[in-house]
Amino acid sequence: MNALLERYPDEVKAILARYPQEQKRSAVMPLLYLAQRERGVITVKDMAEIGELTGMEITEVGSIVGFYTLYHDSGPRFRVQVCTDLPCALRGADEFLKRLCENIGVRVGEPTADGSLVIEEVTCLAGCHHAPMFQVQGDGEITYHEDQTVESATETIAELRRRAAGGQHE
Amino acid sequence: MSEYVLLRHRQIPNLNRLEVYQANGGFGAFRKVLTEMQPADVLNEVKTSGLRGRGGAGFPTGMKWSFLPNTLWPHYVVANGDESEPGTFKDREILENNPFQFLEGLMIASYAVQANLSFVYLRGEFWQIGKQLERCIATLERAGLLGENILGTGYSLRLVVHMGAGAYICGEETALLESIEGKLGQPRLRPPFPAVAGLYNRPTVINNVETLTNLPPILANGAGWYRSLGTEKSPGVKIFSLSGCVRRPGNYELPLGSTFRHLIEELGGGALEGRRLKAIMPAGASSSLLRVDDRVLDTPMDYESVAALGSQLGSASVIVLDDSVDLKWLLNKTVHFFKHESCGKCTPCREGTYWMSHLTERLVLPGKAQAGDAELLLAVARQMQGKCLCALGEFSTMAVTTAMQLFPEEFAER
Ligand SMILES: Cc1cc2nc3c(=O)[nH]c(=O)nc-3n(C[C@H](O)[C@H](O)[C@H](O)COP(=O)(O)O)c2cc1C
Ligand code: FES
Q1: With contact defined as beta carbons under 8 Å apart, do B160 and B116 qualify?
Q2: How far is the CA of B206 from the centre of ligand 1 (A)?
Q3: Angle at B104 between CA B142 and CA B42, to 5 degrees
Q4: Is B55 helix (H, G, I), strand (E, B) or coil?
Q5: Mutate to test the interface with A, among B179, B333, B341 (most CBs of A within 10 A)
Q6: Given the DSSP bridges, would you call strands B117-122 and B158-163 parallel, antiparallel or unpaired?
Q7: For a tag on chain B, would you pick the N or C end, based on fewer CB atoms within 10 A?
Q8: Nearest Cα to Cα of residue B69 among B114, B111, B14
Q9: Which tens digit of pLDDT belongs to each residue from B256-301?
């Protein structure tokens, strides 16, 4: 039984149909996003099922998960990813990240005590002219937050934590 | 500003709606191409226009298309929307606000090489853009501009959006193809080139988003019109992404050959209060530094002129540095980026970026630098040059060698 297929029958079929019939393996990346949508992580069982759908070994699927930074096999529901790459850093991103972490009371890369989110440092997100900026990955979405202040970012984080505490998935 | 060629949404509100785009001439070029022109005519027009790739290398677009053999089928076209070079944010503005002009360009390119299935590769972070593009594609299918037997011409085309998942290297065209094929995003050994053995081992054209967005106006107004913009060898317009130490960072669409001074001082507002311009990185984190003086500021930004200064125009992501920037800190930033993004396939890049980042870290941390660290850094960078599988390794050394050469005083041991 393939739980991913059972859970999202139409989407799995639509994903497979995008690529030439004999190129099922091409579907691995969109299928991984699908598997990750609900909980923010990809389990070994997901990898096995995706392997089944794409004709890949589970270890091959696993290496894809490991290679690309937007796939996760563990971690909290939300990831607040602050860009500290050169152009953003020239406009205060390092200081922004430091003060944001102090404000929230966490260290970069360490999940909050409630396990709802983690603040991470990432490379350029093509938003350099709107620094400081970050993206939020979670619930199958990625959203940009640009021209930020420590206050506005703190508010966004509080909102994410309320959502996590409420348990509701949109 | 006269009329925009690419950033037309800045003059026309709601251009991301098909009816607005069409009311402003949209898909006129695609209709004309499909109903009045042979694929070879399209190819010739693009060749004559002198359009060069906007993804970094500036390779002539028409010539690239002409390399596809007509004996091997099917052909594919892949739009490169990975846009991950630090300091580059031009494709994003096009995709968010003028998506139909980009899609029309991709459709024209597909017709020119007779591809029936084409891909848009987007960096995964462009998630919202991906959703919008899929809606645009569905709209075009309903309008009969995509699908089977388009406009009754017998030509069929399907477009697929493929999301990356966070890897700069997937902007490199062969790594990108691997990624679509469901493999690790690692570059291929060349030859064979993608024009002969690309996606699924078939002839493939890979073009940058901005390159493709130039096609509708070129086909609508003709190659002669396009050549009236820009310079003899670098015709047309280009979007310059201006970032760093300037008052007004942002995208600026200008004819190729506009000067650094015009972009940075007139449009960008120049240096911040009380600061002086120090250096320019014209091609993002991958570029050779330019030390700012009048000669540099008055240099036209086209492929040849910037190369003549010893740097690169690349994708025209102009990062401005002022006199507050410590170049050791700068190199630590750029080298860390490349270390993080090295795909690990070839040894010189994997090991070289690792050692360089080790050294730049020591150089910036108080009291950590050891005697000879700066020379060692330069030696590692020089040893990497010319030895890596793809250009990423080479890119990682550009800022290192040029910063140390142009600003030796900043690396002298104290
Ligand atoms: C490490 C590396 C990263 C690259 N990243 C991009 C990118 O993000 N977008 C892009 O269009 N081209 C990128 N390129 C260039 C592509 O390999 C390719 O030359 C380009 O997409 C061709 O399109 P064009 O001829 O229209 O410029 C990159 C190249 C290298 C070596
Ligand atoms: S450097 Fe932060 S978005 Fe480009």
Answers
A1: no
A2: 9
A3: 125
A4: coil
A5: B333
A6: parallel
A7: C
A8: B114
A9: 999 999 999 999 999 999 999 999 999 999 999 999 999 999 999 9
Give burial (CB, 10 Å; 0-12/13-18/19+) of B40: exposed
In this structure, whether the domain defined by A78-166 belongs to CATH 3.90.1150.10 is answered with no
Read off the tokens for B100. Answer: 């139909």
| Spatial strand order in the sheet of B317-322 | B250-255, B237-244, B317-322, B277-281, B290-291
Q: How do the domains of chain A map onto residue ranges?
A: 3-67, 78-166
User: What is A3-67's CATH number?
Assistant: 1.10.10.1590
Per residue in A25-72, pLDDT tens?
A: 999 999 999 999 998 999 999 999 999 999 999 999 999 999 999 999
Cβ–Cβ < 8 Å for B320, B245? yes
- Produce one character per residue of B71-90: b if its CB has 16 or more CB atoms within 10 Å, e if not: eeeebbbbbbbbbbbbbbbb
* Residue bearing the CA closest to ligand 1, atom 12: B55
Q: Please, how many CA atoms are within 13 Å of residue B222, restricted to the half-sphere of its CB? A: 3
The Cα-based distances of B111 to B39, B61, B104, B121 in angstroms read 6, 14, 11, 19
